[in-house]
Amino acid sequence: MSTQKYPSFADYQSALQHPEMAFSSNFLKLGSVESDLWGFPRVRSGGFALTYKVDINEMTWAARCFHRGVRDRAIRYAQICQAIEKYQLPFFVPTRYIQHGITVHGKQFPISVLEWVEGESLESYIFHHLESQKDLITIGQKFRQVCRLMEEKELAHGDLSHRNILVKSDEIVLIDYDGMFVPALTGRKSSELGNTHFQHPERSNSFFNCRMDRFSSIVIYLAIMALASDPALWNRFQSGGEGLLFQKSDFLDPGKSRLLLALENNPGVSRYISQFRQICTSSIESVPSLEELIEGTSVKPVKISSLFDSRKKQKVEIPVIFAESLDEIYKKEGEIVTVVGRIIEIFHGHTINGEDHIFLNFGDWQEDCFTVVLWGSVLDDINRMDISVDSWIGRWVSINGLISVRKRRPQIQAEALTDITILPSQENANLLLNSYTNSKWSQIEKKKVEKESAEKGSNQVIQNHEAPKINLIDMFHYSEQKNVDSLLNQLYSSNRFNNINK
User: Fold this and answer.
1) Do 211 and 85 share a structural domain?
2) I need a labelling partner for 389 at 20 to 30 A (CA). Which of 150, 194, 378, 448 fits?
């Protein structure tokens, strides 16, 4: 891994308030970075990068700013970009890696640039089409075709998940290519392990080849087709995690998986479940392609001891944090986490520009407390579905998203309604908190929740009331940021990116 220290989330947020000074490309300097509810640069996060939407004239671009170092990233991206250009597969977006793309605090750092894809995540697409079996079957078949073409070209994404697959005009687009395998990278190790809720228990850095997407593609296909046959599975199993129906525990102990037990009677996928259990308990080397699974290829079993060792080493990458543990939340600024807690207050308001929003506060807003911000497309979904957000007061919830901090108030701005899960009870909250066993403070948080339960009663729900409407500036204030030094213009060339290179 690279020893270079990369800018923090706050560093990038400060720099990109002035794109004309931060970007090295004269073309990108002309851009306007999309703003969030507070007027700061709006950011989406991937595994290795913070992604910003940049509007330039009538074009929209994604600028991905890296916050984690990979020693041979430039070499990897050169080969990845060449492969994408060579094969011209419709589900890949032409990308350019820029070694000296942005300057932060006087130092230059790489970025990647690609055309912005205006679509919704696969998770969001499924949520919006749960009542249409035809739509889900169609998108499942299109995903199957994507996997077939990648197998033919000996390509692998490396982190296939419901967040890295977008649906645009009913067509699939893959994003985030940091961990991608192309034939020219044969012999190297993987730079990431992907979302563990989509990965085989034996997945490791040494398993870096064109077969590394096989397990995740099977998981995604089974989830889509199962939901097409039984949409009720969504409410039963899509709860408070980073998976698509499946969770890591389903792969570690498939014989006791409640989900797999339910899928045994699902007409859309029942014929695959026995073999999938074998796949989970077999070597990653023997995982069949999605096509082979559908065609009924068998899997050779391996010794349990070998798989047990790999299970012990597997780590959960998405931290799960109790909402009242503010010190731990502050440490995760700029990272994707799951926060679990009880909603204490709900405020409705609007910005100085008239943008409607809702705050879900997990404490007293006049003091420092964790907050979930609902606005934009999330609020549109809430209004379209006639959801009574005020009824959430007193409920236990989990929220997945990127942590940002405004005036010592940590928050997550929800990107999709599916990021929020209303948990049935405090017991479910405890289970979710305890799932993050890799944390030294998990037991402390458990005691906090248990203490709160003893004081308030585990079944107590705060009495609902008319949520007040306030102005955004009553809670948060804009702050002036220092300018960033001008940069040199050093960019790669490409026919499709001629304007960026000027």
Assistant:
1) no
2) 448
